[in-house]
Design brief:
107 residues, Sulfate adenylyltransferase, 3 helices, four-stranded antiparallel β-sheet
Length: 107
């Protein structure tokens, strides 16, 4: 809500496993708070699929983190857990769906 986060990423394999469509440029999404109440509408402005170990630092920082090392460690921990729960193996070169977005409405 403060404008620090203008990007996000997910493991490509999770879209496939959950039979979810990939995000599309110009798509709008509703952002929910911790109580599942809508707080903003965002518009996707860019989507790319990159190996995790090729995600550039500027993208990582656009996710609202303090530095690239923090981004890497947090994502490695998260993806190891998410993939492990599904019996899958984490890889530093696994494809990530990288989205950039802008806030178009805040409540």
């Amino acid at each position: 809500m403060e404008g620090k986060k203008t990007a996000t990423c997910s493991a490509h394999i999770l879209y496939e496993l959950e039979n979810e469509p990939l995000p599309q440029v110009d798509q709008y999404n509703i952002v929910l708070d911790s109580k599942e109440m809508p707080v903003a509408i965002i518009q996707v402005v860019d989507v790319s699929i990159l190996p995790m170990n090729e995600v550039p630092e500027d993208f990582a920082l656009a996710e609202g983190v303090k530095d690239y090392a923090y981004w890497w460690n947090a994502h490695e921990t998260f993806f190891k857990g998410e993939l492990g729960e599904r019996g899958l193996t984490y890889s530093e070169s696994m494809p990530l769906v990288c989205e950039r977005f802008k806030v178009v409405y805040k409540s």
